[in-house]
Every structure is written in C-alpha cells, then in structure tokens.
Model the fold of this input.
Amino acid sequence: MLSKLKSLRIWLLLWVCLGVLGAVLLARAALLDLRTAFETDARIIHRLLSQRGVQHDAILATLALLQPERDSREQRLSSLYSQILDVAQREPGSHWPDAALEKAESTSHQLGRPVVADVDWLRGRYRMVLAATPASHALTIDLRSSVPWNDWPVSAATSPMRVALVLDGQQFVLQPGQSRSGGWRFDFRKHLAAESQPFEVVAERQVGWSELPWVSIFLWLSLLAVALAGLRSVLKQRDERRRAQELLRLGQVARLNTLGELAAGLAHELNQPLTAVLASTQAARRLLDDDEPDLATARTAMQQAAEQSRRASDVLGRLRRTVERPDLSGNQQQLDLRAVIRGVLYLLEPECQKRLVIPVQEIPADLPAICADPVALEQILHNLLMNALQALEQVPPRERRLTLRVCQEQARWILRIEDSGPGIAPDVLPRLFEPFFTTRNNGLGLGLGLSETLAMSMGARIVAENISPRGARFSLILPDEKAPS
Amino acid sequence: MTRLLSPLIHLIDDDEAVRTSLALLIGTVGLRVECWADPQNFIAQFDRQSIGAIVLDVRMPGISGLTVLETLMAQQVDQPVILLTGHGTVDMCRRAFKAGAAEFLEKPVNDELLLETLQQAVRQHVRLRERSEASREARERYLQLSEREREVLGLIVAGLTNKEIGRALGLSPRTVETHRAHLFAKLEVESLAQLIRQFAELTESPAG
Done:
C-alpha cells in the first residue's frame, strides 16, 4: 500500500514538473510572439509619424521658397493636409502676434531649420516656424489629424497598445490602449526622425496573465496526464504480468515440493512394514528349511508378516483418503471446445515461442457445444500440449509441427494433438500412462497418468499412437453424449 | 573364533516390527541379537567387549543413525557398523562410508545380503580382535629385552649380518651371536621370518 502510494506520488510529481516546464515554455513562446508583434507595430507607428514630421518640414520649406499669396496657401494646404489647421505669415517689417513665435523664429534663424514654437497639449496642437526671407511662415498642426489612420497597423479603439507623443515631460495620447495590472510590460521609445519636431514616440503594452496561452497549457497538461497515466498503467501491467508468472512458477515449485514430501513420507511409511514382511517371510523360510524345523517360531514369523502387510495396506488407504479427488463428473457442463483450446494455447504461448513452434488448428466451424468438466479438460489439453512441445525439442526447429485437430467419429468428438517429434518408442508405449513412468530426466511421470485419470472421470479416454512419417498423436476421445456411460 | 560366546549383533531400529522380524531373521543363522529401540540407551549401555557387529537404522526420531555412527567412532568402538536406510542417496552413502560405516544397505533388505554382510563383519571383527591381542603379546615380550638386545634386533630387522652388526655396534661377532640367541628365546620365536613378521613394527616405533 505504502509503495503504491509512493509510486503514485512520484508520478504526480513527474506530472507537475513536466507540466510546469511545458507551460513555462509555451508561455515564453507566446510572450515572445506578442513582443515581436508589438515591436513591429511600434516601428511602423514610428515610421508613419516620422514621415508626417518630414512632410511638415517640407511644407514649410516650400512656403519659404515659393512665398505664395495668403488666400491660396491657406485653402490649398488645409484641403490637402487636414492636419494643418492654419498657416501664418510674418511680412517683412511686421511682428508675430505673440512672443513664442518670435522666439521660435529667431531660433529657426540660428539653426536654419524649422522649430517648434509651442504645444497646446490640451487640444493637441503645436505650432512650428521656419525663418525665411522675405516672409517667415508658421504652421499650426493638429496632432490627432496628422496620424495616417488608414495606414495605422492597429485598430486605435480596440488595440491594447498605448501610443503617446512626449515632449519636455508632457504628453499627448494618440491611442489609449488597455491598461492592465500585473503581468509583463513591453515598451518602445524613439524620437521622430524629423529633427525639427523632437517628439518622442512612446508605445507601451501591458500583457496580462489572461493573455497567456491558457488553452494550449491546459491541453498540454491534459495530454501529459493522459500520456503519463498510460505509461504508468503499461508499466504496472508489465509488472503485474511478471509477478503473476513468478507466482505461477512458485506455485509449481511448491506443488512439486509438496509432492516430494508426500512421496518421501509415503516411502518411509511403506518401507518399514515391507522390511518387516520381507525379513519375517525369509526368516520363516530359513526356519522351515532346517532339518528340524522350529515350527512355532516360523509360525510367529508368518503372523508377523501378515500383520505388517495389513499395516502397509492401511498406510495406502489413509493416503488415498487424504488425497482423494472429488468426483469430477459432477462438474460437467456444456462447453465451447474452441474457447477452451484458445485459452490453453494462450497460456502456452510463451512455451510455443520459446521452441519456435506455431500450433496449427484444424477445427470445424460448426463445432457444437460439448459436455465436459472445464478444469479437467483444460488440464488434459495442457498436459498433452506440453508433452508435444517437449517432444518437439528433440527435432530441429524447421521440422517442428504441432497440429490440433477436432473431428467426429461415430457420434464421438475426438481432439487430436499431433507432433512431428521423434514419436514414442515401442517399449515405452505400453507404459505411457503409468504413474511415475517418465523418459525425461527431470520429469515426474505424472502428467499423462493424471490426464488419463481426469479423462476417465468424465467418461473420455486418451489414446496414444505413432504417426508416419514421424511423430506422435494423442487423441482425447470424448464420450458419446447420446449414450450416457 | 571363540565358541565360548557366539557373536552378538546389536540391532538399533525405532520400529518394533522391523526390530523383531530382523532379529528373527538374524537368529536363523545362529547369531545372538540384542535389540535396541532407543539409540541413546544403546550408546550408553551396550557391551563394548562383545564380539559381533552393529546394525543401525539411519532414519530414527531424535537422533540420526549417522550421528550415532559418528559417536561410536569417536568412542573408538571397534565393532563394524552396518547402516540400514529406507531410501539411500549417493550423498548419504558417501557420508556413511566417510564416517566409518562397514556397509550400507537399503531397506527392505534381502536376507542373503544381510546375513552374508553380517557374517563377514563378524569374521572381520574376530580377526581384528585377534590381531590386537597378538600385537599386545608381542609388545609385552619386546619390553623384556635389554637395551643392547633391542639394538641388535633393530639391526637384524634392517637386514644386517652378524658380522656387520658387530662392526656397527663395536662388538665381536660372537657376542652378537649370544645376544641374538637371547632375544630369540625371550621373544619366543623360532625363525628369522617369524621374528621379522611379529616385531618389525615395534622396532620401527619403539613405543614403551
């Protein structure tokens, strides 16, 4: 129980470790994807805004160069560039209406390029000035309108990305994004590529826990759990099968040991009276052979012999009562012979494989149910098949054939097991079913005898014969069901 | 073989039927049998001086026949021991002979084999006792010799002539001759061959 729990705990631990590892890898991959997408979008935004800045520089430069009339420039420019709200001009000799523009113009004059005069953060506007002769020009630009929304890489309303323009610590938000708490934060900061408008593009993106690939992670954890559970059950099954085999082997050894003990005890129990019988009768014979026979002693000896014979017979009677088998004929039932054969062959599969034997079955399709004791039938089949397999060991693997045949002769079903082994020696044939008769070195000589006893108990019998060109055939002749025996 | 007492066979087996029937059988050839049911009693009480043999069952409750055999050997019992067993394995047989068993028989035992084995064991025991008796007498006579006579005896056994013995011991051949006559008389031997057969061993290991 403890070891089982322990092993379950180990499997759970394994699942947690592998699960976390996989989840982290999945999350990292997802975050990396999100970051790459964010940076691509941010770079596109920066490029688009920079292009507008450069465009504004170019408009001012064109105005300075062409010095157009007041009406045409205002209408034309505003209709072409929606972000340009107003175009102002300072005629030579006149002054700008406010000081900011004055100051910007002087700076522009010094630097020789347009300069931002001031920013109206509330309304999102800024003014820029380019000093020129004869007249200098100033543009009022709306920040929001200067965004090329058609080319914008994200949807301004729904995108989780916040985009703002920052100058001197103040900012104008182009796109609010969605703010989330916790998680991971991506950001991107870069000045516009137009020197005259030193706005910094600040893009931010907050990735929340909810954006992690939870579905994939869940799938991964489930798949992993299923895989580990499968692996565990396979291992467990293998373990159990091995244990079952071990138990079976142990059981066989235990049975053999019991049998050995029984035989040794029986031998001793019988040996004592037999010794006494032999000694007594021999003593009696010697006494009677004397010239003057001591008849009284001889008689005592013969009496002794008789008593000891009875003692031996009692030992056997006691043994028989101890190991007496219940009558098997009571357990007879209707059976599918095919299923019984299949079951026994399944049990013997390892033995067949070990000897490179593939059993051939020739069983009629219309086999009716037969009446037999299932345990006895299985035992008989098992013994006969094991015998055949062991006989096949004596011929080269290529010549090994094992055939199971079911046929009918005069209302009796017959199960034949044929092997291509060396066959049965003529002197062995009559003693084949004797208990403790064996031709194998480590055989007990009980298999065939037991099979015959079992067969007889259910009204069947076993016939052994040799077949040509070589091999042995054991036939289990089942009883005629119409004529009860 | 002294006819004073016929040889005595000690039979140890825990099974009464086996004991009585074997005793009956052994009795038919004129051997006396003493039966013991308990090996411990047997070890404690049996007559060690008797001429005969011991028949011992291997499988007995409490103490195994092999252990009994080992105990007897350790106590330098000189009666030959014949082991009887129900099922003798090669290993058990080997152990029995190694422990000093004279014979190892399987039960049920054939009468001729058993009786022949017993008679042979008895003959062997009688010979053993006679031989030890003879060597005891020889030792007593040997002890009567003087120092010089023992030296001369040693050299005679070594195969030296009187002349050579005289030279080796610094004696005249005549003196050697006298010693030789004395020791022949004391040891009660008549020929050189008899002298060597009975006393060669004693001269090699002059034990007191």
